[in-house]
């Protein structure tokens, strides 16, 4: 069973102040260290390390103690790491691995323009994922509401790739059949189908397929399609949208790439 250790680190005075940033980077480069954060009081930093056996804690402590800027190190607590299958799944999904660095400061939630419409804020959805709350996370609307504006990502002090994490949750929700008929997966499928057929997006065909697929689920208001007709007409008249799809050169090769990517992903 995995063992989790909490390590309190005191730095030499000459390495204090701005030295915290470089020290944190050095500690995060150690494979066993999952989280590092500054603290106030007697110690300067706290680190959380995950090792295979309790004996491995000493090895990690020795690696840290060997740093020139470390004055002293105290092992605050050692405990068994409870199994968390959902968190392991999130970590193994591209885009999900970076939430291990999250310090729960809440800056992502404060930066999000759509947080008021989310079931859980970005900060809370990360906390729920860490707690293993698979059903609560994957049935929420949080990742589907994300606008991919990247404000949370560029402002995160721990470089957590929150936008990529949201897309990772979308994939997991769809893979486990917990997207509950939301319209966004239908939009993704219509987009990919258009790319597979033509090598580029045929806007008219894509939107027709999208609206038809969502109408059949009862999740889309039928009037929404009618309301889009004036905009579609303007685009057609100004030559910004074509009635017939056009294929690009190499569309067959692109189709092969798309199908290979879907096969590797295990889901459509």
For the record, the CATH class of the largest domain is: Mainly Alpha
CATH topology term of the largest domain: Fumarate Reductase Iron-sulfur Protein, Chain B, domain 2
Helix and strand composition category: alpha+beta
Q: Report helical residue fraction.
A: 40-55%
What is the succession of H and E elements? EHEEHEHHHHHHHHHHHH
**By CATH's scheme, which homologous superfamily of the largest domain applies?**
Alpha-helical ferredoxin
Q: What coarse outline follows from CA principal-axis ratios? A: elongated
Regions with pLDDT < 50 over 5+ consecutive residues?
Answer: none
The domain count comes to 3
Which second-level CATH architecture of the largest domain applies? Orthogonal Bundle
Report Rg: 24 Å
Largest sheet, spatial ordering of strands:
2-3-1-4
Beta percentage is: 5-15%
Biggest β-sheet description = 4 strands, antiparallel
Walk me through this protein's architecture.
Helix content is 49%, strand content 12%. The protein has 14 helices and 4 strands. The chain has a 4-stranded antiparallel sheet, covered by helices on one side. The mean pLDDT is 85. It is elongated, with a radius of gyration of 24 Å. Helix 10 runs antiparallel to helix 11 and helix 10 packs antiparallel against helix 14. With 268 residues, it is an alpha+beta fold. The protein starts with a strand and ends with a helix. It has 3 domains: 78 residues, Lrp/AsnC effector binding domain/regulation of amino acid metabolism (RAM) domain (Alpha-Beta Plaits), CATH 3.30.70.920; 91 residues, Fumarate Reductase Iron-sulfur Protein, Chain B, domain 2; 83 residues, no CATH class. A hairpin with a 6-residue loop joins strand 2 and strand 3. The longest helix has 16 residues.
């Amino acid at each position: 069973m995995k063992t989790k250790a909490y390590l309190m680190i005191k730095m030499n005075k000459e390495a204090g102040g701005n030295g915290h940033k470089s020290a944190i980077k050095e500690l995060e480069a150690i494979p066993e260290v999952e989280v590092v954060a500054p603290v106030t009081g007697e110690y300067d930093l706290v680190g959380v390390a995950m090792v295979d056996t309790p004996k491995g804690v000493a090895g990690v402590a020795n690696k840290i103690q060997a740093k020139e800027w470390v004055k002293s190190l105290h092992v605050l607590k050692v405990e068994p790491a409870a199994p968390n299958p959902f968190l392991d799944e999130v970590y193994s999904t591209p885009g999900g691995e970076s939430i291990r660095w999250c310090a729960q400061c809440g800056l992502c939630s404060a930066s999000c323009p759509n947080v008021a419409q989310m079931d859980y804020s970005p900060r809370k959805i990360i906390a729920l994922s860490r707690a293993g709350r698979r059903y609560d996370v994957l049935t929420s609307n949080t990742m589907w509401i994300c606008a991919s504006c990247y404000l949370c990502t560029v402002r995160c002090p721990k470089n957590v790739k929150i936008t990529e994490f949201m897309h990772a949750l979308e994939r997991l929700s769809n893979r486990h059949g917990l997207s509950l008929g939301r319209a966004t997966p239908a939009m993704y499928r219509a987009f990919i189908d258009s790319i597979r057929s033509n090598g580029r997006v045929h806007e008219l065909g894509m939107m027709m397929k999208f609206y038809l697929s969502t109408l059949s689920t009862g999740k889309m208001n039928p009037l929404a399609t009618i309301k889009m007709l004036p905009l579609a007409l303007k685009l057609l008249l100004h030559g910004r949208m074509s009635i017939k799809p056009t294929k690009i050169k190499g569309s067959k090769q692109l189709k092969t790439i798309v199908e290979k990517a879907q096969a590797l992903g295990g889901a459509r």
